[in-house]
Amino acid sequence: MLHNIQLNDLPADGRLFEGEIRIDCFAVEGPGAPRFKPPLNFSLNVRVDGPDIIVDGSISALFDLQCARCAAWFPYDAGQDEFEAIEPRDGASTLDLTALMREHTLLALPGYPRCEESNVESRVCPEADRFAPDSDYTPLSDDETLTPPQRDVWGALDRINPDPGSQDPPNS
Ligand SMILES: [Zn+2]
Predict the structure, then answer these.
(1) 112 C-alpha to ligand 1 centroid (Å)
(2) How far, in Å, from the CA of 3 to the mean position of ligand 1?
(3) Cβ atoms of 125 and 115 closer than 8 Å
(4) What tens digit of pLDDT does each residue of 102-148 get?
(5) How many angstroms is it from 64 CA to the middle of ligand 1?
(6) Residue 167 lies inside a defined structural domain of this protein
(7) How far, in Å, from the CA of 152 to the mean position of ligand 1?
């Protein structure tokens, strides 16, 4: 069983465990929580190396995630073709491979999902413009960018003696 892999019985170079899990082993609760779309497919070699348990191979796991910006649900593949986990053995005689896959797959999900990051289908988030990343902001003008730290002094002077020809007010 995947929940109860006997570490003492493994050959020196490990043993391959393959299969699929059709139940929702993730059971993430909550209105906007990731929704697992079974099955989870895996092909993993498990071996013991000194104090460590080493699991490597591949996992595929599809989820529906809710976009943090537009709230649409979109598909996301949290699978990893080069999955590798190194866990301290801590004297354990068994390994719960299902729990390990669950933990590492959930960690592979984006913490702030955006639908345009779907790696299953190409999307454009309709709300992308509302919360543009900092790098996309356009400076108001060259004056803004080059304003020295004393800008408040110059701003105060501008208010006393406005000169519309040199600098547009920010709300015009
Ligand atoms: Zn979106």
Answers:
(1) 11
(2) 37
(3) yes
(4) 999 999 999 999 999 999 999 999 988 765 555 555 555 555 444 44
(5) 13
(6) no
(7) 38
